[in-house]
Every structure is written in C-alpha cells, then in structure tokens.
Amino acid sequence: MRNSLFKRMRQGISALVVISALAAGGLTAPLPAAAQAGPRIGIVCTTGGVNPTFSMEARDGHIVLGDGNTMYMWGYALAGQPFQHPGPVLCVNAGDTVTVVLRNNLPEDISMIFPGQDNVLANGATAQPQIANDGTVTSLTNTAAPGASVSYTFVATNPGTYIYESGTNPEKQVRMGLFGALIVRPVSHADWAYDRANTQYTPEEEFLVLLSEIDPYQHMAAEQGQPYDLTKYHPTYWLINGRTFPDSIADNFAAWLPTQPYGALARIHPYDPTSHPHPGMARYINVGTEDYPFHPHGNNGLVIARDGRLLEGAGGEDQSFEKFAINIGPSQTWDVLFKWYDAEGYSETNPVPVTEPDIANLTHGMFYSGSPYLGKLGPLPPGISTLNQCGEYYIISHNHALFQLDAWGMTMAGQITYVRVDPPLPNNCQ
Amino acid sequence: MHTSVTRRDFLRFAGGTAAVAAGLGLIPGLRNNRLLPAQITAAEAAERGPDLYFAGTDGWIYLPPDPPIGQGPVYFPDDLAPNPFNTYIFGFRDITGLDQTQIAKQRMKAQHSAPLFWVNQYNGSNEFRMQLTNLGLQMRPDLTDSHTLHWHGFRNVIPYFDGEPTGSVSVPVGRNFTYVFRPRDPGTYMYHCHVEDVEHVHMGMTGPVFVRPLQNGNTSLYGSGKYVYNDGNGSTGYDREFAMFLSEVWAEAHWCDSHIQLPDWSDYRADFSLLNGRVYPDTLAPNAPIDAAASINSLAVLRNGDGELQTNPNYAHLQYQPLSSLVTCRQGERVLLRFVNLGFREASMTLAGFPMRIVGRDATLMRGSDGSDTSYETDTILIGAGESFDAIFTAPAFSGGSGSSGQGYDTYVLYNRRLTQVANLAAGGFGGQRTEIHVYPNGALAAQKYPNDWGV
User: Fold this and answer.
1) Domain count within chain B
2) Which residues have CB under 8 Å from B100's CB, separation 6+?
3) What is the mean pLDDT of chain B?
4) Which positions in chain B touch A293 (Cβ < 8 Å)?
5) Residues 215-244 (A) with a CB less than 8 A from some CB of B
6) pLDDT tens per residue, range B10-62
7) A318 to chain B nearest CA, in Å?
8) In angstroms, rounded to a whole number, what is the distance separating the alpha carbons of residues A75 and A104?
9) Nearest CA to CA, how far is B199 from chain A (Å)?
10) Which element (helix H / strand E) includes B454?
C-alpha cells in the first residue's frame, strides 16, 4: 500500500530549504533564545550552569501528527517561552543541586516528579504524596494550584538518563504531555555516559529516543473540559521525541513544527579504529503505557545502563549486554552504545559479490543513493527521485510492535527514525 | 469482534464485495512500464548460484474456524477462501531447485511460518547467497507491492543487502535479487519482508533463521558436536533443536487484504497467536513430509511434480503450515528451543514441569565482557516483538512404564502464559501458542535429522 510519504518528505525538505534561505538572508522570524540554541541534529540540552535553577511553566498548546491531525497538548516549557512538546531536555552534572521552579498555567493542580532521584524537596521541605481527608492519594508529590508555583530541589547524585513528569493525575497529565528528559552527566569526563571508561562515546553522536503515545479522545476531552473514561484508553499515535515519522527525522527546530523542537535522526560516521573509535550513544526513554520493542537495524546495541544505573556487578564487573531489540518498559530508560561499519568493506574496488540487477528491475527507496557503496551516488530509473545527498546510508530504527508505526490509520507514520551514516570525512555531505 | 456493526464495517462489507468482483478482472500489473528481459551477463554467469531461492507471494492457511469473527462483514472464516482454508496471507516459499514452470505455479501458494533456513558461520569462504523473486499477489492484482528479505539482527550489513526498502532496493513483481551474507555471529535470528512492513509482516512474511557456529563438529566439548554458540566449554551443546516461531493473526486485517480494504492498524488485536504458523492443537500435528537429503540450508518440504508442497494424509488443511511445534526427546538429552517473536505482542512462554536455561538472547551468548556466565534458569520467557531467546533444557527422567501419557512418553506443556493468547477466541479451553514436550525413555527415537524433526 503506497502512501504519500514521499510527498510529505518533499514538503519537509522544501520547507527546510526555504528556512535555510531565510536564515542566510537574516530574515528568520526570531525564535525564543532558549529554543534556538542547540545543534540541528542530536540532543538539545537546556543547561543552567553549576547548581542550576530551571524556571518552568506548564501550559497548553498544539502539535501536528503524521496523518495531518493537530492535537491539543499540555506541556512543560521554560518560563516565558511558548508551549513545546516534549518538555525541555534538562542536562545537569552529577553532584549538582538542581532546582525546578514550576508555575502552573493549566486549569488544574499539577506537579513534577523525578523518578530515580532521591530526597527531593518541595518548597524546601521533603516532597510528600498529597493525601486527601478520605485517605485517597491525590498526587504523588506537592502540587501547584492554577496560577501558583511550586519549587523542587534535589541533588543529581547519579549520572544517567531519567524522566521528569507530572505526579498529579498522571494517567491524564502525563498522557497529555507533561513529561521530559533529564540527563545527568558524570563529572569525571564530559564524553563518558557514566564513571566508567568503556561508556565513552562520541559527543556529536549522542541521541535521544523519547517514546510516547496519544489517545486522541483523551486529549479532546481535556480540551473540552469533558470527563474521560480511562477504561476506554486506546492510543492511536506513537511518537519519538514528540514527533511522528517522517517529522521525526527532520532537524531540531524544523520551522513547520514550531511546538515540536526535537528531531530524532541519528547522524553518525562509520566506526573506524583510528579516526572514529568511539560509539554513538542513544538514550531511550518510554513514557507510554506498555513495552515498546525498539529495533535498530544495522548492528546490535550495547546496553550499558537501565534507569540511570550502570550495569555492573558489586565488584565492578561489566554486565553490559548486546541486543538487537531494545524492549523498553513504561517509565524505563535504557542507555545504549552503538556503532556501525561495513563488515565487508564493500567499495567500487571491492564490489558486492553479485551482479547488480538493471535499475529498471528494482524498486528504489527514496533514501537510496543508487549505489550499494557508501559515499557513492548511482543511476536511478527515469522518474525516480532520491533524497540522498552524498551517498550516505540510511538505516532504519523502529518500534517492532509494527501497528505502532501507525498514525490512526495512516501507516508508516509512527515510531520510526533513521540512523544516517555519512561517508568518512572529507565528504560532500551538507 | 463481537460488537455492533460500525459504519466503517458496513462500508467495508458493501464495498469489499464489489471491489473484489472488479479486482478479479484486472490483469496483473507490473510496476515499471519497461520490462527488461533478464539478460545473463558474463559476470553473472561466472557467479556461483544461490544457496537458496525464495519467492514472495500470497496464499491461504487454516485456523480453527469456530467461532466466526466479526459481525456485518464476517472477517473470519474468510468467505473467499478455498476449502479447507480460511485465512488469507502473504508469505514466502522455498523454490530452490524448481524450474520456471513449477515456480509460476507457486503463486498464491505461500506458507506460514516462512521456510526455516540456516547458515553456517562465515569461515572466510562460505558466503551465503539468497535469491529472492516476487510472484505477485494473485488475490490482489491491484497491489504491485515489491518484496524484500530483511535478516533481522544481522550485524553491520550494508543497506543494499538489508531489505529495508526506503534506504535500499526491493524486488518488483517478476524480478530477482540476490542477497549475499557472510554471517559472522552465530545464534537465532528472524527474517521478514520489510516492504510496507506493518502489513507484509503481519500478513505472514516472517520466519526463523539460524547461524550455526564454527565450533560445530567439535565433539570434545559436547558429544553431539552441536552448539548454539562458540562457547568454548560446551555450555550451549545440545542434542535436539526446535524452532518456536511466534506470530499473530488479526482476522480483520487479513480479511481486509483479501477484500481490497484497509484496516486501521491502530485498532490492532491478536485474534490468533501462532506457534510455527499453527495454533493448538494443530501445533502437535506432524511436520509436513521433509526431504532430509535436500535440507542442507532449509527445511525442504517434499514437493510434487508441479512444485507443490506435499502434506500428510489427513492434514490437507495444514498444507501451507508445514512446521510442527511438538518437542520430542529422550530423558537426559539436552534440547534447544529457539524462540523468535515476530508478532506484535509480548509473549510469555512457560514450560511447566522443569526449568530452561537461557543461554542466548538476540543472537548473543549470555556472557559478560569479562567472561562471566550470565545465563539463567527460568520457567517463563518474556519475549518482545523482534526478540529471540535460546533456551536449553535437560529432559527429566522418564517416569517408567508407558509414561504419564500412557503412550510411551511423559507429557509436559509449553504455552503462552498470557492466557488470552492461548484461547483461539473460543469459549474456554486451550488454543493458540501452546504445544507439548514428549519425553521418551532411553533407546526410543532416532537422532534428529533436521530442526523440529520428531525422530520417530
């Protein structure tokens, strides 16, 4: 079943070109400073120096989805900045005392919890579950009423990948989008994931894979202030970093996604023992309601940590393990090192050991270069276009519960992203 | 779906019938206007031929027809299915050794699960060549989908041989493509078509594949000389091996494909959970007749002069589901179960009566980087979509006499503890992903000639 994926991709690329042109001419509409900062590809860190204080607001807004639908959302944003989804990626250093001042611009009590962090303070006192007079728990932590603020403080003791999310009516508020990623970096080395030498990675190849889902009826009910029956919960959208495919592989801050700033394309160079010895790093997070079995093609990943804890024994034994399916449970985080190289070293001088069929006898994918070889462009049949720039490889990475590649009836519009492998430098890639 | 008729269902019912009538009148289309004759170049002629030759096409399989599924349109049993079948599939067939006339006759003769194949680990010269052709979808002449063979989990393969169609090439109707693999990492993998993968995977283009380690043949570590990995100590040695391939059928999606309709995949549900392409009790039925001598790289089902799959007397309904799930072994033998899940739901496979040891996962030996043993014993394996597990058990002592079954063997049960997946939608009773392990006394059973061989 063919769909309009290529058309959607081309729209995306066109928009990108337009934006680039505008940027070159200095005509880009001013974006908020916080949202502008950061690389085109890879993790966009929001930082705050030593012992940072993040002033944040909970507010509402809309996002766009793979079937063209727009969705009402709630989200955490930096104070004074517009709505964004998901919340800013907070990057801190181990040992930092981290403060989040959260103002509530939503119509009901909200909060923020930090799974994996100990001894969280709320407004200076130990954060506490909120318990009503009848004994029911109304929130997992102290809340901010509409229009009010609450302050949380904790010491980020352990390096790793974590979640922050609402602890109040989470079955509604987390689903509505009140979540984000927290990355704690080790003090010892900026390019280690943990305080262990074999967690070293290539800083330019650090990526976030934040997985979530949406039941449109739940969001419609919230938008209209109507009750929602959670027993009818039925997600129909599955997102990576707040986007569906193919938006998921667009650049960070893509102009046609003004409220969804974070892309998920991983762009790497092939492993080389001398020129590119260290792996890339993917930080997987699941804020959905069921396991997402994520499958990166290309090579097994090395799982080095889960839930912000290095996989090592009491005596320091390395307990990391390889996987080709990263089966992430709800609220889990998995840290995975990965690299790719052509095990056969195929090139025009070491060609594939099979006669390539005539181009008229194959179907060509829209990312295919026309050549089996990295860094080469080859002929394509008449009328076939490619989005390939410089002979780079595109290696898919996707949820293998394949119905979750769907966007409410539109296939290939869910949790899909790609690893883009550029030819070794120097190359002609943009 | 025992719910009221929705508007969508109604339109499907009305539209589907008309569309099928119209569709059957279409001529099978080809994607490109230019159809080049397959010219054999000198270079091609010098190449070694493929080790295996597979075809992608459509077909029909059998699942227990009672109760029906769906109101308004009855999604299951499919009203277009030829007797005795009832479920439309896409799938692969092993057409190695067939001539062009025989190959043409395999259109709409797909099997599920897809043919089991295996490869020896690369030793520097034994590269593996897999040719794929596309016979089209006879029920759906309007659909000119290409196919690929994606070897799920294969490390460091270039996109050209990965079968992911967006970043690579795929095989149109009537064409051929040869994938070349040099498998360096032993273990249990899976393969599937990656074109329109939600649809093609769910429709059945999925099967298991093993890579046998270089250590095989070394009888000093384990007497059989058969291992899952290059373990160096015999810890993955085994006497018998059985593929346990998990997949699912959502009846509505299969009906939609035969009736020129589109399902909303976000409504996905597993109506049937299959083990090696069948549901209990058919999981206990025998393998199709196997040509053991021809089973060099794949489980070669006997074929007739037309290239058609042969089946056992009284099992005509399983003609396109050739793989049994019954495990047979002698007491004290080490038995390898290679679990692979290409359904969309997690499975929780439980062996009642004795433990299994997990020696591998995702084609990786359970061993830390410092050499420490990370294998573990369990009676339940939680298997996510796209995962594989290698589990070895030592068969318990035979109880004596005619066994707990009264038939000369002891019976144990292997089943999915997610009980909704062992139900076949019937009111009570077992179905779905459930099979048995039969433990025989010493001296019973012949040595296993191929995977899933009963030895009887």
Assistant:
1) 1
2) none
3) 91
4) 346, 384-387
5) 234-237
6) 445 444 444 444 433 333 333 344 445 555 666 666 789 999 999 999 999 99
7) 6
8) 10
9) 8
10) none
- Provide the residue range defining the domain that includes B123: 7-35+42-440
Phi and psi of A395, rounded to 5°? -120, 120
Is the omega angle on the peptide bond into residue A88 within 30 degrees of 0, that is, cis? Answer: no
Identity at B164, one-letter amino acid code? E
Check: CB of residue A338 under 8 Å from CB of residue A187. no
On the 0-12 / 13-18 / 19+ scale of CB atoms within 10 A, A99 is middle
Q: Is the pTM of this model over 0.90?
A: yes
Q: Is the pLDDT of residue A23 over 90?
A: no
Q: What percentage of chain B exceeds 70 in pLDDT?
A: 89
Alpha helices in B24-145 (DSSP H): 42-46, 100-104
| Residue B389: CB atoms within 10 Å | 23
User: Measured between alpha carbons, how far is A137 from A147 in angstroms, rounded to an integer?
Assistant: 22
Domain presence at residue B342:
yes
Distance from the Cα of A379 to chain B's closest Cα (Å) equals 13
Give the 3-state DSSP-derived string for A294-333, with helices as H, strands as E and coil as C. Answer: EEECCCCEEEEEECCEECECCCCCECCEEECCEEECCCCE
Select the residue of B184, B198, B342 nearest A403 (Cβ to Cβ): B198
- Give the angle subtended at the CA of B297 by the CAs of B293 and B299, to the nearest 5°: 65
ipTM, two decimals: 0.91
Residue A11 has a pLDDT of 45
B44: nearest CA partner in chain A: A355
- Please answer whether residues A100 and A56 qualify as being in contact, where contact means their C-beta atoms are separated by less than 8 angstroms: yes
Q: Do B196 and A341 touch (CB under 8 A)?
A: no
Q: Name B20's bridge partners.
A: none
Q: Is B77 exposed, middle or buried (0-12, 13-18, 19+ CB in 10 A)?
A: buried
Tell me, what's the pLDDT at B421?
84
pLDDT tens for A133-192 read: 999 999 999 999 999 999 999 999 999 999 999 999 999 999 999 999 999 999 999 999
Concatenated DSSP letters of B412-428: EEEEESSGGGGSTTSSS
* Residue B358 placed within a domain: yes
* A413, two tokens: 């519009």
Closest listed residue to residue A76, CA positions, set A97, A106, A53? A106
A324 and B372 within 8 Å at the Cβ level: the answer is: no
Confidence tier at A65 by pLDDT (50, 70, 90): very high
* A408-419 average pLDDT score: 96
Q: B449 in a domain, yes or no? A: no
Residue B244: phi and psi, rounded to 5, are -125, 85
Residues of B in contact with A380 (CB under 8 A): none
The pLDDT value given to residue A30:
38
Task: State whether residue B163 is helix, strand or coil.
Answer: coil
Q: Is residue B431 in some structural domain?
A: yes
Residues 6+ apart with CB under 8 A from B46: none
CATH number at residue B297: 2.60.40.420
Q: Comparing A268-272, A341-345, A409-413, B34-38, which segment has the lowest mean pLDDT?
A: B34-38
